[in-house]
């Protein structure tokens, strides 16, 4: 029971997280491959379509513009995206094993439409503003079975990230393009299992990772082109995963995921100088995401699961490049398994929380739909 249903539960967690999460997070590095038997290889992918727009606003002092009210619609600012992952696990001996995990932990794809005949009501102050963040993380974990029930694991994480953004106000054109940078952090955790009742509880810590990026900033008409250094840390996080059999062939599973977003900020020097010390991206609060679901095995080959996820709204002022505050969603998934292969698929619908940005534009009624799958091979 545990082996079948754990796979579909982790597939659902992957899909629901990919649909949308707090800050810039798009996927959580799952340690589930460490619990596979023998040698195991998997590939995963998720495809997300989303919609979010805002209404009206107010230009405050400090933006190089006359203080005035904004009217109209921002237009849909979230682009669709795809992301991919892979994992390999193998045993060294009876008590030692290792896993190599590849994922895209952070991302952003924001593009405000430009006022045109197709978007006649678009608020002009957002015309063409955009942001893009790409990242990749490679984590190597060594696991040690202390006994039949307790496993500890840990290892380094190598992460690359490359952000870019443009802010196109009527009297200020600002853009920043950063070279890709590689940083190193670490991951460690422990898990306790009782296989007889399909119980497993695991706690995983992922460290902050510092990045020092060479950035090209352009500010018209103020500072012109400028080569600068931008230093920031992607936040540390703590993830509690749990599962337990609650009836024959039925599993309860869940996750509590905390991220230290309140310590995160990207502040290119020219941007902060022009906009009165404001960071380009920052969050005033940490976020916790809760997931709870039920899985059931129907036959030796087929199992399914449903889960709900919730991220409380913090009611904080957010950047225009990612104005989402909280979410609630539901995910459905199924798994087919035979002696050589496991295939899981899932779909997630997420209602995005309403938010307010630094220009007091209200963003509401956003939504995201994610479709994902995993294919695993027993080698």
Explain what the structure shows.
Helix content is 6%, strand content 60%. The chain has helices at residues 2-19, 269-274, and strands at residues 40-59, 68-73, 81-91, 96-103, 108-111, 130-145, 150-168, 173-178, 181-194, 199-206, 209-220, 224-234, 237-247, 250-259, 265-266, 281-282, 287-297, 302-311, 317-318, 327-337, 341-352, 355-357, 362-378. The strands form two sheets. Strands 1-3-4-6-7-9-10-13-14-17-18-20-21-23 form a 14-stranded antiparallel barrel. The chain is globular, with a radius of gyration of 22 Å. It starts with a helix and ends with a strand.
Largest beta-sheet characterization: 14 strands, antiparallel, barrel
Helix-strand topology string: HEEEEEEEEEEEEEEEHEEEEEEEE
Tell me, briefly, the overall form.
globular
The number of helical runs is 2
The class by helix and strand makeup works out as mainly beta
- The overall average pLDDT, rounded, is 87
Number of strands: 23
Strand proportion: over 45%
Query: Percent range for helical residues?
Result: under 10%
- Which spans have pLDDT < 50 for at least 5 consecutive residues? none
Q: Give the CA-CA distance, first to last residue.
A: 21 Å
Strand order across the largest sheet: 1-3-4-6-7-9-10-13-14-17-18-20-21-23
Radius of gyration: 22 Å
Describe, in short, the structure shown:
This protein has 379 residues and is mainly beta. It has helices at residues 2-19, 269-274, and strands spanning 40-59, 68-73, 81-91, 96-103, 108-111, 130-145, 150-168, 173-178, 181-194, 199-206, 209-220, 224-234, 237-247, 250-259, 265-266, 281-282, 287-297, 302-311, 317-318, 327-337, 341-352, 355-357, 362-378.
């Amino acid at each position: 029971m545990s082996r079948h249903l754990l796979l579909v539960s982790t597939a659902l967690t992957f899909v629901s997280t990919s649909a949308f999460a707090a800050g810039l997070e798009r996927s959580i590095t799952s340690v589930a491959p460490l619990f596979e038997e023998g040698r195991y290889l998997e590939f995963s992918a998720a495809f997300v379509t989303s919609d979010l727009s805002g209404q009206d606003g107010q230009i405050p002092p400090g933006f190089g513009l006359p203080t005035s009210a904004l009217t109209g619609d921002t237009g849909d600012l979230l682009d669709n995206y795809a992301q991919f992952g892979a994992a390999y696990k193998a045993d060294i001996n009876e008590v030692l094993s290792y896993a190599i995990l590849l994922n895209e932990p952070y991302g952003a794809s924001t593009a405000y439409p430009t006022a045109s005949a197709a978007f006649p009501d678009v608020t002009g102050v957002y015309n063409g503003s955009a942001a893009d963040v790409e990242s990749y993380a490679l984590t190597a974990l060594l696991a040690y079975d202390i006994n039949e029930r307790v496993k500890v694991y840990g290892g380094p994480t190598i992460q690359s990230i490359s952000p870019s953004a443009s802010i196109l106000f009527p009297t200020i054109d600002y853009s920043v393009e950063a070279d890709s940078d590689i940083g190193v952090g670490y991951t460690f955790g422990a898990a306790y299992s009782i296989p007889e009742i399909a119980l497993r509880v695991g706690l995983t810590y992922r460290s902050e990772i510092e990045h020092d990026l060479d950035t090209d900033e352009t500010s018209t008409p103020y500072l012109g082109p400028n080569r600068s250094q931008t230093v920031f840390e992607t936040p540390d996080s703590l993830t509690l995963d749990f599962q337990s059999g609650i009836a024959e062939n039925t599993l309860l599973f869940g996750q509590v995921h905390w991220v230290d977003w309140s310590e995160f900020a990207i502040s290119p020097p020219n941007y902060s100088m022009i906009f009165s010390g404001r960071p380009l991206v920052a969050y005033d609060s940490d976020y916790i995401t809760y997931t709870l679901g039920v899985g059931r095995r129907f036959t030796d080959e087929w199992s399914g699961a449903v889960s709900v996820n919730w991220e409380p709204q913090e009611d904080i002022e957010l950047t225009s490049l990612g104005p989402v505050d909280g979410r609630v969603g539901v995910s459905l998934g199924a798994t087919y398994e035979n002696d050589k292969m496991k295939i899981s698929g899932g779909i997630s619908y997420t209602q995005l929380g309403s938010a307010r940005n630094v220009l007091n534009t209200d963003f509401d009624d956003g939504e995201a739909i994610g479709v994902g799958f995993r294919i695993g091979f027993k080698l």
